[in-house]
Amino acid sequence: MDKSKVYEIADYKEGFTFSDQHYQCLFCGESFEEGVIYKDGELQQTAARAIKRHVATQHDGVLTALLSLPRSFSGLSETQQEVFTLFAQGISDTVIAQRMGISTSTVRNHRFKLKEKERQARVFVAMMSLLSIATPPLPHEGATMIDDRYQITEAERKRVIQTYVDENGFVQQFPSKEKRKIIILGETVKKFDRQKNYSEQAVNEILKQMFTDYVTVRRYLIEYGFMQRTKDGQTYWVHS
């Protein structure tokens, strides 16, 4: 199996992928072309049936093939692979314990650990799938929901900017109302590069170009979730 590739869960369960009109075995790379009839002795079969028969006969089925993969693929130790194989055969915990020379409580613990790994794997897959999705932060760290104060229309945004930001981009008076405050903070954070880290001094220099009380605005950027910083306050970055 190609360790550099990540397949869909459905592909792992089937033991093959389908791409560019070809079925390809995950375990050995054998390929079957759609539209071609394959002969297996007296048997003639489509590519879809041929790949399934290939996995079943050449690799003893998908589960056996997956369990035969090295630990770097499955994350299972040799003992866990052995226990998993016995579980898959429907053998009772008592019989498994006798065969492996361990107690039934140890077998039950193995079963629990495997279930725990499944739960962790599901959570991890969800986390990885979210890595590429840009999720906007909540308006501030204490917020548990976004209410009407944060439902900002483009017309409102433009009106607030025209009211508070002069032609030089300077905010003469920082608004006190939440919605207006959030609009100004949203415009302020655009001055920062999301791909960069900033020292506190660098943040101050940027904010000085827009605000007189830049220290308060810097605190608001953190409190309202637009930026984050390290615990020692030395490094800042845009929250994304």
From TrEMBL:
<dbReference type="InterPro" id="IPR000792">
    <property type="entry name" value="Tscrpt_reg_LuxR_C"/>
</dbReference>
<dbReference type="Pfam" id="PF00196">
    <property type="entry name" value="GerE"/>
</dbReference>
<feature type="domain" description="HTH luxR-type">
    <location>
        <begin position="69"/>
        <end position="134"/>
    </location>
</feature>
<dbReference type="GO" id="GO:0003677">
    <property type="term" value="F:DNA binding"/>
</dbReference>
<dbReference type="InterPro" id="IPR018656">
    <property type="entry name" value="DUF2087"/>
</dbReference>
<dbReference type="InterPro" id="IPR016032">
    <property type="entry name" value="Sig_transdc_resp-reg_C-effctor"/>
</dbReference>
<dbReference type="Pfam" id="PF09860">
    <property type="entry name" value="DUF2087"/>
</dbReference>
<dbReference type="GO" id="GO:0006355">
    <property type="term" value="P:regulation of DNA-templated transcription"/>
</dbReference>
<keyword id="KW-0805">Transcription regulation</keyword>
<protein>
    <recommendedName>
        <fullName>HTH luxR-type domain-containing protein</fullName>
    </recommendedName>
</protein>
<keyword id="KW-0804">Transcription</keyword>
<dbReference type="InterPro" id="IPR036388">
    <property type="entry name" value="WH-like_DNA-bd_sf"/>
</dbReference>
